[in-house]
Design a protein that fits this description.
Length: about 120
């Protein structure tokens, strides 16, 4: 059974940092490209970042380039998202999934709120 569990969200002031984690089980983690996605209130879910199975290749949405860094630890079946210089418009529920995403892989997400 596939399970992706996101954690690490919270309330942070503009300019602050957070590190999100996503622990995976039930899948051959190291062979899959993984991604982070987010959904803000009243908006559709959008792509944030992706990383190849090996961890060598990464890609980012233009809105987060230079501020967010995706990484993974295949020994721990975990993918991370380091978020720096956070802005109020980064407020959303953040999810991990395979990339491209698969409908049966969505977890509950973790809430990130950027506010003073």
């Amino acid at each position: 059974q596939v399970q992706l569990v996101e954690s690490g969200g919270g309330l942070v002031q503009p300019g602050g940092s957070l590190r999100l984690s996503c622990a995976a089980s039930g899948i051959p983690f190291s062979i899959y490209a993984m991604g982070w996605y987010r959904q803000a209130p009243g908006k559709e879910r959008e792509f944030v970042a992706t990383i190849s199975g090996s961890g060598i290749n990464t890609d980012y949405a233009d809105s987060v380039k230079g501020r967010f860094t995706i990484s993974r630890d295949n020994a721990k079946n975990t993918v991370y998202l380091q978020m720096n210089s956070l802005k109020p418009e980064d407020t959303a529920v953040y999810y991990c999934n395979r990339h491209p995403s698969r409908s049966g892989y969505w977890g509950r997400g973790t809430q990130v709120t950027v506010s003073s």
